[in-house]
TrEMBL record:
Residues 21-154 form the Formylmethanofuran dehydrogenase subunit E domain. InterPro entries: FmdE, FmdEsu_dom, tRNA_methyltr_O, Znf_DskA_TraR. Residues 105-132 are annotated as: Disordered. This is Uncharacterized protein MA0381. The keyword DNA repair does not apply. Keywords: Metal-binding, Zinc, Zinc-finger. Residues 177-204 form the Zinc finger DksA/TraR C4-type domain. GO terms for molecular function: zinc ion binding. Residues 111-132 have a biased composition (Basic and acidic residues).
């Protein structure tokens, strides 16, 4: 791959595949592509097994590009979601514990006031046809700008000294829930009055008791 001073280093065929995987092209997906490039260059390559772990602090569009490009997926246990609502990712290579965290630079992902206004109108269904197409145009321009920017303009990249390396995914035994009877991974089962319950039945039993606390 030729060295890129700015602009995505991901080829257009791969980008098409990522768009197919995600369902559409959008600024969030473009941000995910750019973050994944850091993973590939700093701790890569694509993880066919569990050698690379991604900790994602968002569950929005960008994660799909991360999954596609890094090979870190929920099913393999090497994609861990922290529900922080930040477009930030930590990539860890297990073999030598090399780890980097990328976080969106303040301002890098901001939309223009016009874009924000149109976005609100589209969301509440009050946009005219012209406003809709202008919105699409602004979105496409923004996506393109993200793909053309240098990674450093979009993200702060920080090397971590000692990352907490999550344990390799293990297969746990399952037990039948005393409420619904469904097999539930043992580590997720909760005890209530001597009954072993799945999380859903546990929550339901608690709210029936009227003792559910907001948390
Ligand atoms: Zn999207
Ligand atoms: Zn149950």
């Amino acid at each position: 791959m030729a060295e890129q001073r700015g602009g995505t280093g991901i080829d257009s065929t791969t980008i098409k595949d990522i768009v197919r995987f995600h369902g559409h092209m959008c600024p969030g997906l473009a941000m995910g592509i750019r973050a994944a490039e850091v993973a590939l260059s700093e701790v890569g390559p694509h993880s066919s097994d569990e050698e690379v772990v991604t900790i994602t602090e968002t569950d929005m569009c960008g994660v799909d590009a991360i999954q596609y490009l890094t090979g870190c997926t929920f099913g393999k246990g090497n994609l861990i979601h922290l529900d922080y609502g930040k477009n930030a990712y930590t990539f860890i290579r297990r073999s030598d514990s090399k780890a980097v965290r990328v976080s969106t630079r303040p301002g890098a992902f901001d939309r223009s006031p016009e874009h924000n206004e149109l976005s609100a109108k589209v969301r509440n269904d009050s946009a005219t046809d012209e406003e809709r197409s202008r919105y699409k145009e602004l979105r496409a321009n923004r996506t393109e700008a993200i793909l053309q920017a240098s990674v450093g303009e979009l993200y702060a990249v920080e090397k971590l000294e000692s990352a907490d390396i999550p344990p390799i995914a293990r297969i746990h035994d399952s037990v039948a829930c005393a409420g619904c009877g469904e097999l539930t991974m043992e580590t997720r089962v909760k005890q209530l009055e001597g009954r072993r319950l799945c999380p859903a039945c546990f929550e339901a039993a608690l709210s029936r008791q009227g003792s559910v606390e907001s948390n």
